[in-house]
């Protein structure tokens, strides 16, 4: 085994929202990388976890030793001095890399920032197992849809006028206050912007604290409207979305706090969104690469049978409001690679991670990468090829996962034009 480049075995999670059996990319990757994993065609396969998180750790493929143990034995070689100093750990990666295969909507959720993460973990370690924040980025591998952040305020005001069920849950007084006082063109950070956020919090708080009987009654009326009065909705695809979501979670509060208050986001393969701490979101369908700070803290709002922490959720959100386009990430050029193929960088405005996508759509061949100043995890998602360094050459097939130590120059060699890899990494600057 090379200490600088070695293959990993990644674990998977079978949450109910995952794609079923071999239709799931997660199941395909798990089985292809380890044929002893038998795909159960009636079971969901939702997430492939790559990293050192204690819930689903990765292991060295040959020795079966946990990655965090390998790191702890030689932390400077595996993480780098600067990463150890920056994140104050000699055993763990600061990021968690995942593949998600989504058949049903995930819970509408938000994640605490670092300060709130520490508080929630101390108060309720069962429901908040980590003391860290959890900003995350999603890169679409197939067509993807989800909820991402609150809609622009004028759209919400329009819905309060158009949709009686939403107005009933919010109440006439707060509905009218929101419609009259909100200023959709307010400059971020201004007093008008601060007031906009307070108004949005009032609306969201009323929705999240609505009595269950009221939610059930108004949800059924809303779905009847979606079937019979589609012109009442300000977006053409909204009635169909609400009907689909109601089949998965009948009469759920998520129809209102998600379907009517949050942006419905569609991504094509290669597009990405960054989800900041304290911003509400949910994934609805598709396959994505997801990277996040190493945390499993989730504050849930709807579309879930799990624990909902309504009080903390209503208090914690930023209540930022923007269009879908305003939340998409732009892929950047990556000048630190040469040779065949193309590499693009998804670099969110946080310290814990960035993700590099490499493809060979135009020509097969070899692509060389200079050493990064921190550790990396790379997965092959399509096609066939090799990854190599200093005399070590390893086969890279769909679902094969690799750890790359800091300052390690590697080469990717494509055997076909489908060969695609994603590499999550962290650097000190």
Automatic annotation (TrEMBL):
A single BP term in Gene Ontology: carbohydrate metabolic process
Free-text comment on the cofactor: Binds 1 zinc ion per subunit.
Residue span, Phosphomannose isomerase type I C-terminal domain: 343-388
Family annotation (PROSITE patterns): PMI_I_1, PMI_I_2
UniProt enzyme class: isomerase
Record-stated family: Belongs to the mannose-6-phosphate isomerase type 1 family.
Protein name in UniProt: Mannose-6-phosphate isomerase
Source species: Naumovozyma castellii (Yeast)
Source species taxonomy: Eukaryota, Fungi, Dikarya, Ascomycota, Saccharomycotina
Gene label: NCAS0A07720
């Amino acid at each position: 085994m090379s200490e600088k480049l070695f293959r990993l075995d990644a674990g998977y999670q079978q949450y109910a929202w995952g794609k079923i059996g071999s239709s799931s990319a997660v199941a395909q990757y798990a089985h292809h990388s380890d044929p002893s994993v038998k795909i159960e065609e009636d079971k969901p396969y939702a997430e492939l976890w790559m990293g050192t998180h204690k819930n689903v750790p990765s292991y060295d493929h040959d020795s079966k030793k946990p990655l965090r143990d390998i790191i702890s034995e030689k932390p400077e070689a595996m993480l780098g001095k600067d990463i150890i100093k920056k994140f104050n750990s000699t055993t763990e990666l600061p990021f968690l890399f995942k593949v998600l295969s989504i058949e049903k909507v995930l819970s509408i959720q938000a994640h605490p920032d670092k300060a709130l993460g520490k508080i929630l973990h101390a108060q309720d370690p069962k429901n908040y197992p980590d003391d860290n924040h959890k900003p995350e980025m999603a890169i679409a591998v197939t067509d993807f849809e989800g909820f991402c952040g609150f809609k622009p305020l004028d759209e919400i005001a329009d819905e309060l006028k158009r949709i009686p069920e939403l107005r009933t849950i919010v109440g006439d007084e707060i509905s009218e206050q929101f419609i009259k006082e909100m200023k959709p063109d307010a400059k971020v950070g201004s007093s008008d912007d601060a007031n906009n956020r307070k108004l949005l919090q009032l609306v969201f708080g009323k929705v999240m604290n609505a009595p269950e009987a009221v939610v059930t009654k108004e949800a059924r009326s809303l779905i009847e409207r979606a079937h019979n009065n589609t012109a009442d909705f300000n977006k053409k695809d909204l009635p169909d979305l609400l009907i689909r979501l109601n089949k998965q979670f009948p009469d759920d509060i998520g129809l209102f706090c998600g379907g009517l208050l949050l942006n419905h986001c569609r991504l094509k393969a290669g597009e990405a969104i960054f989800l900041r701490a304290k911003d509400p979101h949910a994934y609805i369908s598709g396959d994505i690469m997801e990277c996040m700070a190493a945390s499993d803290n989730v504050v849930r709002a709807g579309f879930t049978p799990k624990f909902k922490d309504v009080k903390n959720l209503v208090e914690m959100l930023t209540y930022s409001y923007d269009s879908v386009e305003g939340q998409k990430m732009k892929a950047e050029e990556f000048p630190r690679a040469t040779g065949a193929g193309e590499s693009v960088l998804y670099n969110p405005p946080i310290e814990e991670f960035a993700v590099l996508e490499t493809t060979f759509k135009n020509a097969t061949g070899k692509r060389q990468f200079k050493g990064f100043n921190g550790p990396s995890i790379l997965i092959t998602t399509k096609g066939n090829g090799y990854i190599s360094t200093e005399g070590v050459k390893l086969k890279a097939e769909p679902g094969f996962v690799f750890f790359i130590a800091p300052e390690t120059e590697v080469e990717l060699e494509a055997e076909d034009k489908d060969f695609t890899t994603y590499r999550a990494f962290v650097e000190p600057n």
